[in-house]
Amino acid sequence: MRPFQTSPGDELGRLRHNFFYRDGTPEIADALLRKFLDEELPELLHIVETGERAAQVDAARRVFQRTLLFVRAAERRPELRRTYEAIARDATAEALRGLLPILRHVGDETTLATLTALADRHGLPHESVALTKDPRIERSRAPISDPDHVDARWIEFMATGDLGKVIEILGVLGGADRFRSHLEALLRPATRLTARFSGEQDRRGQIVAGLQPLGLRFVPYSHEIKNPDDLDLLISVTGVEPDPQRLAAALAALPAPPPDALISHARTKAAALGSLASNAVEHPTVLAVCEAAAAKLTGAVRLTLLGLLVEVHAARGDYPAARAAMRQLLEGNRVRDDLRARAAELLQDEQRAATKE
Asked: Domain total for the chain?
Protein backbone atom coordinates (compact mmCIF):
# COMPACT_ATOMS: atom_id res chain seq x y z
CA MET A 1 0.00 0.00 0.00
CA ARG A 2 1.26 3.42 -0.86
CA PRO A 3 -0.69 5.96 1.17
CA PHE A 4 0.41 8.86 -1.02
CA GLN A 5 1.27 8.10 -4.62
CA THR A 6 2.81 10.94 -6.58
CA SER A 7 3.50 11.78 -10.21
CA PRO A 8 7.00 12.82 -11.32
CA GLY A 9 6.00 16.46 -11.76
CA ASP A 10 4.07 16.76 -8.50
CA GLU A 11 6.74 18.28 -6.28
CA LEU A 12 4.26 19.21 -3.58
CA GLY A 13 3.04 15.61 -3.67
CA ARG A 14 6.60 14.46 -3.06
CA LEU A 15 6.80 16.78 -0.08
CA ARG A 16 3.66 15.14 1.24
CA HIS A 17 5.12 11.70 0.59
CA ASN A 18 8.29 12.56 2.51
CA PHE A 19 6.49 14.98 4.81
CA PHE A 20 7.48 16.20 8.23
CA TYR A 21 10.03 13.68 9.32
CA ARG A 22 12.31 15.14 6.65
CA ASP A 23 11.29 18.79 6.72
CA GLY A 24 8.45 19.69 9.03
CA THR A 25 8.52 23.44 8.72
CA PRO A 26 5.37 25.51 9.21
CA GLU A 27 5.80 26.73 5.62
CA ILE A 28 5.50 23.21 4.24
CA ALA A 29 2.61 22.46 6.59
CA ASP A 30 0.86 25.59 5.33
CA ALA A 31 1.36 24.64 1.67
CA LEU A 32 0.21 21.06 2.17
CA LEU A 33 -2.87 21.95 4.18
CA ARG A 34 -3.93 24.65 1.72
CA LYS A 35 -3.47 22.21 -1.17
CA PHE A 36 -5.67 19.69 0.57
CA LEU A 37 -8.39 22.23 1.40
CA ASP A 38 -8.38 23.97 -1.98
CA GLU A 39 -7.74 21.14 -4.44
CA GLU A 40 -8.68 17.83 -2.83
CA LEU A 41 -11.34 18.42 -0.22
CA PRO A 42 -14.09 19.91 -2.46
CA GLU A 43 -14.02 16.96 -4.84
CA LEU A 44 -13.84 14.42 -2.03
CA LEU A 45 -16.79 15.98 -0.18
CA HIS A 46 -18.78 16.01 -3.41
CA ILE A 47 -18.14 12.29 -3.85
CA VAL A 48 -19.06 11.59 -0.24
CA GLU A 49 -22.37 13.37 -0.73
CA THR A 50 -23.33 12.25 -4.25
CA GLY A 51 -21.19 9.29 -5.33
CA GLU A 52 -21.88 5.59 -5.50
CA ARG A 53 -21.47 3.71 -2.23
CA ALA A 54 -18.00 2.33 -2.97
CA ALA A 55 -16.78 5.74 -4.13
CA GLN A 56 -18.25 7.38 -1.02
CA VAL A 57 -16.39 4.96 1.24
CA ASP A 58 -13.12 5.53 -0.60
CA ALA A 59 -13.48 9.32 -0.55
CA ALA A 60 -14.32 9.33 3.17
CA ARG A 61 -11.27 7.15 3.79
CA ARG A 62 -9.05 9.59 1.92
CA VAL A 63 -10.40 12.56 3.88
CA PHE A 64 -9.68 10.69 7.10
CA GLN A 65 -6.15 9.87 5.97
CA ARG A 66 -5.42 13.54 5.33
CA THR A 67 -6.94 14.43 8.71
CA LEU A 68 -4.75 11.85 10.42
CA LEU A 69 -1.66 13.17 8.66
CA PHE A 70 -2.13 16.75 9.86
CA VAL A 71 -3.16 15.64 13.34
CA ARG A 72 -0.08 13.47 13.88
CA ALA A 73 2.17 16.21 12.47
CA ALA A 74 0.80 18.75 14.96
CA GLU A 75 1.02 16.29 17.84
CA ARG A 76 4.72 15.94 17.11
CA ARG A 77 5.21 19.69 16.46
CA PRO A 78 2.64 21.66 18.52
CA GLU A 79 3.71 24.93 16.88
CA LEU A 80 1.83 23.79 13.78
CA ARG A 81 -1.43 24.55 15.60
CA ARG A 82 -0.78 28.23 14.92
CA THR A 83 -0.25 27.47 11.23
CA TYR A 84 -3.55 25.61 11.06
CA GLU A 85 -5.36 28.37 12.95
CA ALA A 86 -4.08 31.05 10.57
CA ILE A 87 -5.49 29.08 7.66
CA ALA A 88 -8.78 28.60 9.49
CA ARG A 89 -9.24 32.33 10.05
CA ASP A 90 -9.41 32.90 6.27
CA ALA A 91 -11.13 29.63 5.37
CA THR A 92 -14.44 29.19 3.61
CA ALA A 93 -17.25 27.27 5.26
CA GLU A 94 -16.43 24.28 3.05
CA ALA A 95 -12.74 24.36 4.00
CA LEU A 96 -13.72 24.47 7.67
CA ARG A 97 -15.30 21.05 7.22
CA GLY A 98 -11.79 19.75 6.66
CA LEU A 99 -10.12 21.91 9.27
CA LEU A 100 -12.45 21.43 12.23
CA PRO A 101 -11.70 17.71 12.83
CA ILE A 102 -7.97 18.54 12.83
CA LEU A 103 -8.13 21.58 15.09
CA ARG A 104 -10.64 20.10 17.53
CA HIS A 105 -8.35 17.09 18.05
CA VAL A 106 -5.01 18.90 18.49
CA GLY A 107 -6.13 22.31 19.73
CA ASP A 108 -5.36 24.22 22.92
CA GLU A 109 -7.02 27.24 24.57
CA THR A 110 -5.75 29.56 21.82
CA THR A 111 -7.24 27.22 19.23
CA LEU A 112 -10.56 27.18 21.05
CA ALA A 113 -10.73 30.99 21.01
CA THR A 114 -10.11 30.96 17.26
CA LEU A 115 -12.74 28.29 16.68
CA THR A 116 -15.30 30.07 18.83
CA ALA A 117 -14.84 33.27 16.81
CA LEU A 118 -15.22 31.26 13.59
CA ALA A 119 -18.38 29.62 14.90
CA ASP A 120 -19.89 33.06 15.55
CA ARG A 121 -18.87 34.27 12.08
CA HIS A 122 -20.34 31.25 10.29
CA GLY A 123 -23.36 30.74 12.50
CA LEU A 124 -22.20 27.42 13.93
CA PRO A 125 -23.20 26.14 17.37
CA HIS A 126 -20.35 26.41 19.86
CA GLU A 127 -20.54 22.73 20.69
CA SER A 128 -19.56 21.96 17.09
CA VAL A 129 -16.15 23.60 17.65
CA ALA A 130 -15.45 22.30 21.14
CA LEU A 131 -12.06 20.64 21.59
CA THR A 132 -12.47 16.86 21.58
CA LYS A 133 -10.54 13.80 20.55
CA ASP A 134 -11.76 12.16 17.36
CA PRO A 135 -12.51 8.51 18.21
CA ARG A 136 -11.56 7.44 14.69
CA ILE A 137 -8.09 8.85 15.20
CA GLU A 138 -7.84 7.22 18.59
CA ARG A 139 -8.80 3.86 17.04
CA SER A 140 -6.19 4.20 14.30
CA ARG A 141 -3.56 2.94 16.73
CA ALA A 142 -5.38 -0.32 17.39
CA PRO A 143 -3.39 -3.48 16.53
CA ILE A 144 -3.01 -3.91 12.79
CA SER A 145 -5.77 -6.18 11.50
CA ASP A 146 -6.60 -4.83 8.03
CA PRO A 147 -4.92 -2.90 5.19
CA ASP A 148 -6.36 0.43 6.40
CA HIS A 149 -4.39 0.00 9.63
CA VAL A 150 -1.25 -0.48 7.54
CA ASP A 151 -2.02 2.77 5.71
CA ALA A 152 -2.49 4.56 9.04
CA ARG A 153 0.94 3.45 10.26
CA TRP A 154 2.58 4.80 7.11
CA ILE A 155 0.78 8.11 7.51
CA GLU A 156 2.11 8.36 11.06
CA PHE A 157 5.62 7.56 9.86
CA MET A 158 5.44 10.21 7.13
CA ALA A 159 4.18 12.75 9.64
CA THR A 160 6.63 11.99 12.43
CA GLY A 161 9.48 9.76 11.26
CA ASP A 162 8.66 7.32 14.06
CA LEU A 163 10.37 4.06 13.05
CA GLY A 164 8.24 2.26 15.61
CA LYS A 165 5.42 2.46 13.06
CA VAL A 166 7.60 0.74 10.46
CA ILE A 167 8.48 -1.96 12.98
CA GLU A 168 4.76 -2.48 13.68
CA ILE A 169 4.14 -3.03 9.97
CA LEU A 170 7.11 -5.35 9.74
CA GLY A 171 5.67 -7.31 12.65
CA VAL A 172 2.64 -8.18 10.52
CA LEU A 173 4.92 -10.31 8.33
CA GLY A 174 5.73 -12.47 11.35
CA GLY A 175 2.09 -13.20 12.09
CA ALA A 176 0.62 -16.70 12.06
CA ASP A 177 0.56 -18.46 8.67
CA ARG A 178 -3.17 -19.09 8.63
CA PHE A 179 -3.37 -20.41 5.08
CA ARG A 180 -0.76 -23.04 5.91
CA SER A 181 -2.73 -24.19 8.95
CA HIS A 182 -5.96 -24.28 6.96
CA LEU A 183 -4.36 -26.17 4.09
CA GLU A 184 -2.66 -28.68 6.37
CA ALA A 185 -6.04 -29.47 7.92
CA LEU A 186 -7.55 -30.02 4.48
CA LEU A 187 -4.69 -32.28 3.38
CA ARG A 188 -4.42 -34.26 6.61
CA PRO A 189 -5.30 -37.87 5.76
CA ALA A 190 -8.17 -39.62 7.46
CA THR A 191 -7.99 -43.30 8.35
CA ARG A 192 -6.91 -45.50 5.46
CA LEU A 193 -10.23 -47.31 5.39
CA THR A 194 -12.20 -44.05 5.25
CA ALA A 195 -9.92 -42.62 2.58
CA ARG A 196 -10.26 -45.72 0.39
CA PHE A 197 -14.03 -45.48 0.11
CA SER A 198 -14.69 -41.75 0.43
CA GLY A 199 -12.74 -40.40 -2.51
CA GLU A 200 -10.65 -38.35 -0.09
CA GLN A 201 -7.43 -39.04 -1.96
CA ASP A 202 -8.92 -37.61 -5.14
CA ARG A 203 -10.17 -34.53 -3.27
CA ARG A 204 -6.75 -33.88 -1.81
CA GLY A 205 -5.16 -34.41 -5.19
CA GLN A 206 -7.43 -31.77 -6.71
CA ILE A 207 -6.42 -29.23 -4.07
CA VAL A 208 -2.75 -29.91 -4.69
CA ALA A 209 -3.17 -29.65 -8.47
CA GLY A 210 -4.93 -26.31 -8.10
CA LEU A 211 -2.20 -24.83 -5.90
CA GLN A 212 0.89 -26.09 -7.70
CA PRO A 213 0.71 -23.39 -10.45
CA LEU A 214 1.06 -20.80 -7.65
CA GLY A 215 4.41 -22.23 -6.56
CA LEU A 216 3.25 -24.53 -3.78
CA ARG A 217 5.10 -27.84 -3.69
CA PHE A 218 4.03 -31.09 -2.02
CA VAL A 219 5.50 -34.45 -1.12
CA PRO A 220 3.94 -37.10 -3.43
CA TYR A 221 1.23 -39.26 -1.91
CA SER A 222 1.46 -37.77 1.59
CA HIS A 223 0.74 -34.25 0.26
CA GLU A 224 2.95 -32.75 2.93
CA ILE A 225 3.75 -29.10 2.14
CA LYS A 226 7.39 -28.65 1.13
CA ASN A 227 7.48 -24.83 0.94
CA PRO A 228 9.31 -23.03 3.74
CA ASP A 229 7.53 -19.83 2.59
CA ASP A 230 4.85 -17.93 4.43
CA LEU A 231 1.89 -19.29 2.50
CA ASP A 232 -0.36 -16.34 3.36
CA LEU A 233 2.03 -14.25 1.27
CA LEU A 234 2.81 -16.85 -1.37
CA ILE A 235 -0.86 -16.93 -2.37
CA SER A 236 -1.48 -13.17 -2.16
CA VAL A 237 1.52 -11.42 -3.73
CA THR A 238 3.47 -11.55 -6.95
CA GLY A 239 7.02 -10.61 -6.13
CA VAL A 240 6.31 -8.10 -3.41
CA GLU A 241 3.14 -6.58 -4.85
CA PRO A 242 -0.35 -7.54 -3.62
CA ASP A 243 -2.06 -9.63 -6.30
CA PRO A 244 -5.84 -10.06 -5.84
CA GLN A 245 -6.07 -12.38 -8.86
CA ARG A 246 -3.47 -14.70 -7.39
CA LEU A 247 -5.35 -14.79 -4.10
CA ALA A 248 -8.58 -15.54 -5.94
CA ALA A 249 -6.90 -18.43 -7.78
CA ALA A 250 -5.65 -19.88 -4.50
CA LEU A 251 -9.07 -19.68 -2.90
CA ALA A 252 -10.67 -21.25 -5.98
CA ALA A 253 -8.42 -24.30 -5.53
CA LEU A 254 -10.00 -25.05 -2.15
CA PRO A 255 -13.11 -27.20 -1.83
CA ALA A 256 -14.89 -24.45 0.12
CA PRO A 257 -14.15 -20.81 0.92
CA PRO A 258 -11.94 -20.40 4.01
CA PRO A 259 -13.01 -18.15 6.90
CA ASP A 260 -13.19 -14.44 6.09
CA ALA A 261 -10.67 -13.80 8.86
CA LEU A 262 -8.09 -15.87 6.99
CA ILE A 263 -8.63 -13.93 3.78
CA SER A 264 -8.41 -10.58 5.57
CA HIS A 265 -5.24 -11.76 7.33
CA ALA A 266 -3.60 -12.64 4.00
CA ARG A 267 -4.62 -9.33 2.45
CA THR A 268 -3.22 -7.43 5.42
CA LYS A 269 0.09 -9.27 5.17
CA ALA A 270 0.22 -8.52 1.46
CA ALA A 271 -0.45 -4.84 2.15
CA ALA A 272 2.32 -4.80 4.74
CA LEU A 273 4.85 -6.43 2.40
CA GLY A 274 4.01 -4.28 -0.62
CA SER A 275 4.13 -1.06 1.37
CA LEU A 276 7.39 -1.95 3.10
CA ALA A 277 8.96 -2.64 -0.28
CA SER A 278 7.75 0.54 -1.95
CA ASN A 279 8.74 2.73 0.99
CA ALA A 280 12.11 1.02 1.44
CA VAL A 281 12.96 2.07 -2.11
CA GLU A 282 12.19 5.69 -1.24
CA HIS A 283 13.33 5.91 2.38
CA PRO A 284 16.78 4.67 3.50
CA THR A 285 15.60 4.46 7.11
CA VAL A 286 12.87 1.99 6.15
CA LEU A 287 15.36 -0.06 4.16
CA ALA A 288 17.71 -0.14 7.18
CA VAL A 289 14.92 -1.49 9.40
CA CYS A 290 14.16 -4.25 6.88
CA GLU A 291 17.84 -5.16 6.53
CA ALA A 292 18.30 -5.35 10.30
CA ALA A 293 15.22 -7.55 10.66
CA ALA A 294 16.36 -9.90 7.87
CA ALA A 295 19.71 -10.31 9.62
CA LYS A 296 18.10 -11.07 12.97
CA LEU A 297 14.98 -13.11 12.23
CA THR A 298 14.69 -16.73 11.13
CA GLY A 299 12.23 -18.98 9.33
CA ALA A 300 9.58 -17.88 6.89
CA VAL A 301 9.67 -14.21 7.90
CA ARG A 302 13.40 -14.07 7.10
CA LEU A 303 12.73 -15.54 3.65
CA THR A 304 9.99 -12.96 3.13
CA LEU A 305 12.36 -10.13 4.03
CA LEU A 306 15.14 -11.49 1.82
CA GLY A 307 12.68 -11.49 -1.08
CA LEU A 308 11.79 -7.91 -0.23
CA LEU A 309 15.48 -6.90 -0.15
CA VAL A 310 16.08 -8.49 -3.53
CA GLU A 311 13.40 -6.34 -5.14
CA VAL A 312 14.21 -3.16 -3.21
CA HIS A 313 17.93 -3.29 -3.99
CA ALA A 314 17.19 -4.05 -7.63
CA ALA A 315 14.77 -1.10 -7.84
CA ARG A 316 17.45 1.13 -6.35
CA GLY A 317 20.00 -0.13 -8.89
CA ASP A 318 22.16 -1.81 -6.24
CA TYR A 319 22.56 -5.14 -8.04
CA PRO A 320 25.40 -6.53 -5.90
CA ALA A 321 23.20 -6.18 -2.81
CA ALA A 322 20.24 -7.68 -4.70
CA ARG A 323 22.34 -10.68 -5.73
CA ALA A 324 23.63 -11.15 -2.19
CA ALA A 325 20.07 -11.22 -0.84
CA MET A 326 19.03 -13.61 -3.61
CA ARG A 327 21.85 -16.03 -2.77
CA GLN A 328 20.66 -16.19 0.83
CA LEU A 329 17.06 -16.61 -0.33
CA LEU A 330 17.94 -19.51 -2.63
CA GLU A 331 19.92 -21.17 0.15
CA GLY A 332 16.85 -21.09 2.38
CA ASN A 333 14.22 -21.88 -0.24
CA ARG A 334 15.14 -24.58 -2.75
CA VAL A 335 11.66 -25.54 -3.92
CA ARG A 336 10.67 -22.42 -5.88
CA ASP A 337 11.52 -22.48 -9.58
CA ASP A 338 10.38 -18.87 -9.92
CA LEU A 339 13.13 -17.71 -7.57
CA ARG A 340 15.81 -19.22 -9.77
CA ALA A 341 14.20 -17.57 -12.78
CA ARG A 342 14.19 -14.25 -10.94
CA ALA A 343 17.89 -14.66 -10.12
CA ALA A 344 18.62 -15.06 -13.84
CA GLU A 345 16.56 -11.94 -14.60
CA LEU A 346 18.54 -9.95 -12.06
CA LEU A 347 21.79 -10.89 -13.77
CA GLN A 348 20.40 -9.81 -17.13
CA ASP A 349 19.12 -6.53 -15.65
CA GLU A 350 22.52 -5.84 -14.12
CA GLN A 351 24.27 -6.48 -17.42
CA ARG A 352 21.88 -4.16 -19.26
CA ALA A 353 22.42 -1.44 -16.66
CA ALA A 354 26.20 -1.79 -17.00
CA THR A 355 25.91 -1.54 -20.78
CA LYS A 356 23.97 1.72 -20.53
CA GLU A 357 26.66 3.21 -18.31
From this structure: 2
